[in-house]
Amino acid sequence: MKVDPFLVERFMGKYEHDVELNLAETCVKPFSLGEFLRFVDREDYLEELKDLPLTYGYVEGLPELRERISRLYRDLNPEGVLISRGAIDANFLVFFSLVEPGDRVVSIFPAYQQLYSLPKAFGAEVRLLRLREEDSWYPDFEELSRLAEGAKMIVVNNPHNPTGLLLDREDLSHICEIAERYGAYVLADESYYGLNIFGDEVPSMLDLCEEAIVTRSFSKSLSLTGLRLGWIATKDEEVMRELMSHRDYTTISASILLEHLALLALENVERIYERNLGIVRRNFEILREWVESEPLIDWVPPKAGTVAFPHYSMDVPSEELALRLIKEKGVFLVPGSCFEMEGHFRIGFGGDGEELREGLRRFSDLLREL
Ligand SMILES: Cc1ncc(COP(=O)(O)O)c(C=O)c1O
To answer: Which of 110, 188, 351, 367 is the most exposed place for a label (fewest CB within 10 A)?
Structure first.
């Protein structure tokens, strides 16, 4: 099976550990283990875990964890939750289980490349729903309706990486209606769920759409990236059966040890969100001020998540710009070329505020020099 190189992962993998200032990160400032246990007032917790038998645990996931996750949604039974190794594994399993050669899949674009390259690798005819900057990255629902005719699956990502677009309740219902019209599944990658900078209330696609399959993880909005845990949630029992039977070939279980830490995170989910919304809101302001002060940069401001996709007005390929930033200024961000869109770069604002400020200052220096 051939698969296209995952451009953003290749680029990040090559440089992220050797740069001084990393503005490419997409997670909200990950906790260290000690910080996390202090944050949830459970510094004694590792002592408690000492007696945990390190068995395979539960194939579908720790029952208490599935139960806790099911409560994040309206009317979802714990049986509708399957624990995965991050959202990347969750998305993989959905495509592996449901997409067959010749199927038609509509995917949002630009996007986290897995969402369109993987169904293509499984033999689907992938049609791209292109978001355009001149429309403020807002999708054209008539175009979606045309593209979705005969589709087996519509793939969305809300909040959206790389643009920070946030579709609201009405938009999500609209997508659901289109999917229902053609009998298509909706896969909603909600990895950045809840990081709504301006406080918009947006439900999960699962609470609006019976046919939805949603994926999410502990990486981005919960700052526990290193746990490598996530989940798939669906109310469709037939889909769950397919996921389970395919998963037998890829994963026996996630880690029982890490699932206990994940459970602790969900028991404190509101406090973690409070911390993380504080971080993204403060950093968003730093970024906004910088964009507004830089004549060569403009953007559609992100509404949610941890990343933005500004545009620069210079005749320099985005990869060259990113490489010069790395080599000359020690600043790392992702060139638009990794999203197959020139003239842009993706910048993360979920990390350390001072690092962001200094990185932007050096970016300004490079812009002057260019
Ligand atoms: C939209 C989206 N989905 C999934 C992932 C995978 O994340 P993880 O496996 O850490 O949950 C990412 C990571 O950048 C992402 O941006």
So the answer is: 367
Q: How far is the CA of 336 from the centre of ligand 1 (A)?
A: 18
Does residue 211 have a pLDDT over 90?
Answer: no
Tell me which residue of 304, 229, 215, 299 sits closest to 28, measured CA to CA.
304
Residue 88, ligand 1, Cβ within 6 A: yes
pLDDT at 169 over 90: yes
Domains of the chain: 7-33+270-369 (3.90.1150.10), 52-268 (3.40.640.10)
Average pLDDT over residues 113-119: 98
pTM, two decimals, is 0.98
**Ligand 1 midpoint to CA 88 (Å):** 5
Residue whose Cα lies nearest atom 14 of ligand 1: it is 26
Q: How far apart are CA 340 and CA 327, in angstroms?
A: 22
230 Cβ below 6 A of ligand 1: yes
Nearest to 325 by CA among 26, 14, 23: 23
